[in-house]
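pinging the channel bc i need a second pair of eyes. not urgent but kinda urgent?? the chain im working w is below, pasted from the shared doc
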Amino acid sequence: MHEVRGSTPLVPTSFASARLQRNCPESPALDRSDEGHNKESTMETVNLGEQIKMLVELQGLDTQIFKLEDELVAIPEEIKKEEDRFKEETAHLKKLEDGVKTLQVRRKEREGDLKAKEDSIKKLQTQLYQLKTNKEYSAMQEEIGRVKADNSLIEEDIIKVLDEIDAENKKIADEKCRLKTEEVKLSDNKKRLDEQAKRVTKDLEELRKQREALAGKVDKTVLAKYEKVIQGKDGLAVVRIAQESCQGCFRILPPQVINEVRQKKDLIFCENCSRILYIEE
């Protein structure tokens, strides 16, 4: 008769836990008071050496499953990230276009100011010939000169605005060309990631079938112990001993523990990280 003993920790629910609950058959709750007690009714025919070999193989499958599940979750996140980046770049293009519209409004306003000044000059010039004294004539000439000076400033401002519009339009044309290329890249990447998601989903289905078949061969009590540990240990429940240390937490193990693992009479857990220990043969 072989018995299963050791201590398994109370662990918080994790992503690994959710995945196991989703993909694995339900396991009975473990009662720590049973550990170290006689389990002849369920364990008397169990070969723990073979059980541990199957657990190591099961963990290999779980490691692949967890990795592919993470990859599957990351794919839509990557697509969204690229879409958001493209939206930001499109918003930047719109901002440039809005800036040009503002400049065009300013240009029209300044052109309106210029026309008003030119109309004023014509009116003053008409009045100029109606004046009777040299003093009035000179004053009117000065006023016309001031208006013409204002016109020169307005014309300079209009030329400056036109230059800005030309420069911004060039930026917009370059940005539209670049965004067109980026849109093609985004479309290609989405197709690539969609195909990748299909491949990952197919691989997951096959691995889960393999896991289900293998888990069915493992003793229920041993499997329950394994699944309880793996839920809180980031997908690593069974670890080998190397250089007298646990390869899960790298804590040096007492010789007695190593000897108990070597005997393969019980499931032995690391006292520090609570993972199942085994010696690679």
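so Confidence is low (pLDDT under 50) at residues 1-18, 20-43. and The longest strand covers residues 238-242. — does that match what u expected or am i reading it wrong
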